[in-house]
Amino acid sequence: MQSAKGRFLRPNTPDKRALLLWLLPAAFLLFFFYQPLLAIFRLIFSAQFRSGWDGITLQKVLQPLGFTVYQAALSTLFTLALGLPSAYVFSHYNFPGKKILRLLVSLPFILPTVVVAAGFNALLGPRGWINLGLMALLNLDEGPIRFLNSFPAIIIAHVFYNTTIIIRIVGAAWSGLNERFLQAAAMLGAKPARAFREVTLPLLSPAIAAAALLVFLFDFTSFGVILMLGGPKFATLEVSIYTQAFHLFNLPMAGLLSLIQLICTLGISIAHNRLSTHKSSALSPRSESANLRKPKTWQEKAFISILLLVLFTLVLAPLLGLGLRSVFKLEAARGERGQVEAGLTLDYYRELFENRQGSLFYVPPITAIRNSLFYSSLTVLITLVLGTLVAYALNQVSKMNRWIDPLFMLPLGASAATLGLGFIVVFNTPTWTNPAFPILIPIAHSLIALPFVVRTLAPAIRNIPQSLRQAAHMLGASPLQVLREVDLPILRRSLLVSAVFAFTISLGEFGASSFISTPDNPTIPVAIYRYISQPGALNYGQALAMSTLLLIVCSLGIWLIEKLRLPGEEVF
Amino acid sequence: MLEVKDIYKTYEGKPLLQGISFRLERGETICLLGSSGSGKSTLLRIIAGLETPEDGSVIWDGQDLRDIPPYQRQFGLMFQDYALFPHRTVEQNVAFGLRMQDLPAQEVETRTKEALETINMQGFAKRQVTDLSGGEQQRVALARAMAPGPLLLMLDEPLGALDRSLREQLGQELRRVLHESEMPAIYVTHDQEEAFAIADRLLILHDGKIVQDGSPEAIFSQPNSAWVAAFFGLGNLLPGKVSALEPPTFQTSLGTLVSANSSAQLSVGSGCTLLLRPEDGRFCYDNENTLNCIQGVVSDCVFQGEQYRLRLDCLGSGELFVYAEEKILPEAQVRVHFPPESIMCLPD
Known about the structure:
By secondary structure, chain A is mostly helical. Helix content of chain A is 70%, strand content 1%.
């Protein structure tokens, strides 16, 4: 028997353990989230900017707010219209290619907005496949379809993005729905439609509401899509924060809009949380394959075929259009004259490594790629360390969690623009904005990716039976050995999933990056945005080439996540 | 060896353990027996160091273990759900405790092999524990707990999750392994047959206290309270009132009964519970014997292999169970005699 050496170092109550675990993440959050947030509030009311209040009218607040709610509500409705039937098909039928399609519809969720915007641009933009095709066919000087900078573009992009959320959440609930209930309803004389209305719908409604709220939240805070596909005509709160801060230099106005946005998103987040914890108990955990069948009647087959075709086109067309457009030369580069030889080319990719413009503000694309890889790696490091601490803290039985947990909820509701604005207000000093080491970008990315990491790790940690750790203790393993021998090997997959999540989120993040990246140190999405809005076929091609690379990396990411994810784990 | 002194523990504000004390001697196997929720497992976990008592101490060879964390106590614990590491093979599970002792790889390997041999699982070394059946998992869990050679082995309802035939088979194996290893052991169960089969000594836990401590034979023949007799299902329990002391005579709902087992605590007028074991009842067919004779009508007759179990309806004043060698049809009138030396008087 050994002595009890070192027992004073061992925190022996859950409260002390929780406190120790919270320490670092809480400090990080206080400094990099709450401090900027407070600074925004101060900004709104500070005397220094009193004069700035002159520019603030109710109209300027209500207009973006109204439009934000309107477009989010409409987008959510359309997303539900496509998502609910898809959720039904995915949870009830087996059909060839289901696995691939499932993966494919999950892809948009992790795709950077710039890639999606570039995809729709490559398909339906003025220089996209369809317009160029129609121009050649009908001998027109200008593309006849004006998709970019239109309201439908916003809605379609949002549907593209969020259908997977409905399929995932509602589909999971639907496939877990005990078929006995429907059988019982049938035995009691309910026709299928009646049974659906009286049994299925009420049991599914919490899941549907939770999914719809989440979609609404994402549409509400959408930034890149509105900026790049909607154009200057359409200003949501998020975009208004950006234009007020950057184009009009009206920081108090931007701050006020941030505050309003934060209150709204917080409300939606809380409502969503309430709903997802009140999941129906009728949803018994069963193997998902239990309800699956093959389509038999021609009606079933027709319904499924049409639906899958729509899904397939919606997801694949812009992405394929993007990939193909990046290797096809269809128009003249700037400075080139006369007829261009149309055809396959890798020019745009080759050009990524060169700096044609030679101007101070135009760095070669390879710099952006290098920057992004560096920032993403740092983000992975920060989020894994902090996320693991938070996830362990959440698993302590401690009263403290009730206090601190909501503090960690808030960043979920904060938008990228709010974050970016706060950073500009607080950290606009040489220490933080040192161009040689722009640490703020990975920090902002970490704040955005942290919730995803925590939501992946916390359930995985919770699922490790306490008896395993105790068994290891009884066999002589010290706490550190237990962590190394029991926890870490079991968590390996979840840690890897978290790392991939953090990496892809950071790689594709546009909103906060567009606020804080310096002109000579852009990230990939910022560079894409810059190139795609420049005239000239070369810039356009480079933007598409970079988007395609990003698309490939993100696809690999989601494929890895799907492959490694334990069954039943969802991060929404 | 192990000494448990005055352990107190509450669970969600309710007292769970109220002053538990006992000693465990070298090479002894004791069984903690009690109904579910009686705090048996909690007591085990307190000894293991996985939970801390509100009061009292656990002492090993004169040393108070209060500040010794579980992983330094060198006790083995076999968990109710086995807690096998799902990310490790059978072999790696068994080797875990040996590796924690920083033994050379060669020794870890040989001792792991030995441990697997003791439970006849040599062929399973490379298998994933998730692929094993319940019985196989149980054996691996046992091997894992025993492989490091713990000072004390504790088993928390080790057969609880298995079906009946497997329980019997593995129970026998467990007894063999425990006996051969001569490791002191504490075995927790709520199953009395299991306890009788394994234990040198039984501790009966009830209402947070040890109500009886003794060998299985002693407890079976001399339960010290009505609760213990009821818990073991020893027989008919009949409330009675003392009407005379020489010999002890009791008034019950089934009439006057006389016992030959006198007890010091008896006083005229006090209440107690009489134990009438079904196997002690004798049928009487004439009127020769009137002492301790109970008349009844057969209301149920259940075949139990070697005998029949009869339920008697005693003229509206109570029920009585007895055994019969042959089938007696319901509605039959019988008279049953209990010899005075078979009747025990138990304090409530």
